[in-house]
Amino acid sequence: MLEKEEFMILRVKRLIMESVPYEPGRPTDGDTLFGHVSSYCDELGFMLTDPVFRNAIKELHNEQCIYRFNDKDIRPTQYGLNKYR
After folding, report:
1. What is the rounded distance in angstroms from the CA atom of residue 47 to the CA atom of residue 61?
2. Which of 46, 79, 36, 40 shows the shortest CA–CA distance to 60?
3. Is the dihedral of CA 13, 18, 23, 28 positive or negative?
4. What are phi and psi of 53, to 5 degrees?
5. Mean pLDDT by 10 residues, the chain (85 residues)
6. C-alpha pair distances (Å), 43 with each of 17, 36, 40, 79
7. In the chain, which ranges are E strands?
8. CATH for 2-84 (3.40.80.10, 1.10.10.10, 3.40.50.1820, 1.10.600.10)
9. Please, are residues 75 and 58 in contact by the beta-carbon 8 Å criterion?
10. pTM check: above 0.70
11. How many angstroms separate the CA atoms of 78 and 70, rounded?
12. pLDDT confidence of residue 78
């Protein structure tokens, strides 16, 4: 079960990085990001849950791919844009 969750988080991390503004430091908010990623997930045939989304955001922040100041201010880093594009 853990392996399946890890795979989901990896997929969601990629979708998050595709959904953030393609400019380092340009802010977006968690609700907008969740909406965009949820739409991608619907198209791909799986449901996005809040815990998976939050874990993916946390992992991307820890990897320094995004910086999450708070739920209203999430910004991509140049490193994250390069790594996931």
Report:
1. 22
2. 79
3. negative
4. -60, -45
5. 84 97 95 97 95 97 97 97 93
6. 17, 11, 5, 28
7. 66-70, 73-76
8. 1.10.10.10
9. no
10. yes
11. 19
12. 97
CA distance 23 to 57: 18
Q: Which amino acid is at 84?
A: Y
**Token pair of 15, please?**
């979708």
The two structure tokens encoding residue 73 = 């201010």
Query: How buried is 42 (Cβ within 10 angstroms: 0-12 exposed, 13-18 middle, 19+ buried)?
Result: exposed
Beta bridge partners of 67: 75
* Distance between CA atoms of residues 44 and 41, nearest Å: 5
φ, ψ dihedrals at 15, nearest 5°: -70, -35
Find out whether 64 and 80 touch, Cβ atoms under 8 Å. Answer: yes
Instruction: Give the DSSP H/E element, type plus range, for residue 62.
Output: helix 50-62
